[in-house]
UniProtKB/TrEMBL annotation:
This is TetR/AcrR family transcriptional regulator. It holds the Pfam family TetR_N. InterPro entries: Homeodomain-like_sf, HTH-type_TetR-like_transc_reg, HTH_TetR, Tet_transcr_reg_TetR-rel_C_sf, TetR_C. Residues 41-60 bind DNA. PROSITE patterns: HTH_TETR_2 (PS50977). Residues 18-78 form the HTH tetR-type domain. Keywords: DNA-binding, Transcription, Transcription regulation. It comes from Nonomuraea mangrovi.
Length: 209
């Protein structure tokens, strides 16, 4: 979003302003990992980023706006989707990317903090939902290409297939505490591929019986 009417902190200027934004978002991520959303404080973030408090209040205004902008930045910087030539190969690449992100010492804790924040702050929740919409849309063509190749039935819901890959990995991160290893990533991709091939995501018309 750019220009008149843009949300605070969501414009994409260059030069010094871009450097200030990068420093502020880095500081916001650091503070989230260390303290969690409830303890975020604009003055502390300004100190960490070596930026005047008035700059933060003028451009973002609230900690929720900072977290929302951080999610926008993370979505924009995420790696592009794979194109291995097969649905299983593409979904394995997706699963391994999700697994690598969630097990990263900083990124994993950052996602936990933002998911926690989203449970109690509507703006953060909306930003988190938008983040996943962007990432799912990035990977959905993997499934659409698989339909074109005849790997999965016509009418397969590409977004549901991509969600099915990452869901068990987030469950391990946030709920069960089971190992989030490469084997788990491969199983998630294999399960989603098998279900898609069986027509589970294409409704009754595309289901193999």
């Amino acid at each position: 979003m750019t220009g008149e009417g843009a949300e605070p902190g969501t414009t994409r200027p260059g030069g010094r302003t871009a450097r200030v934004r990068a420093a502020v978002l880095q500081a916001t991520g650091d503070a989230l990992v260390e303290k969690g959303f409830a303890a975020l404080d604009l003055a502390d973030i300004a100190r960490r980023a070596d930026v005047g408090k008035t700059t933060l209040y003028r451009r973002w205004g609230t900690t929720a706006a900072l977290v929302a902008d951080l999610l926008v930045d993370m979505a924009e910087q995420s790696l592009p989707r794979a194109d291995t030539g097969t649905l299983l190969g593409d979904l394995q690449a997706n699963a391994l990317l999700v697994r690598r992100t969630l097990t990263d010492p900083r990124q994993g804790e950052l996602f936990k903090a933002m998911i926690t924040a989203a449970t109690c702050d509507e703006r953060t929740a909306a930003a988190l939902h938008r983040f996943y919409e962007i990432r799912i849309a990035e990977w959905a063509p993997c499934v659409e290409q698989a339909v074109e190749r005849g790997e999965v039935p016509e009418g397969t819901d590409a977004h549901e297939v991509i969600r099915a890959v990452s869901a068990p990995l987030y469950y391990r991160l946030l709920a069960s505490g089971d190992p989030l290893d490469e084997a788990a990533a491969h199983r998630a991709a294999e399960a989603a591929t098998a279900a898609a091939r069986a027509g589970v995501y294409a409704g009754e018309a595309g289901r193999v019986v």
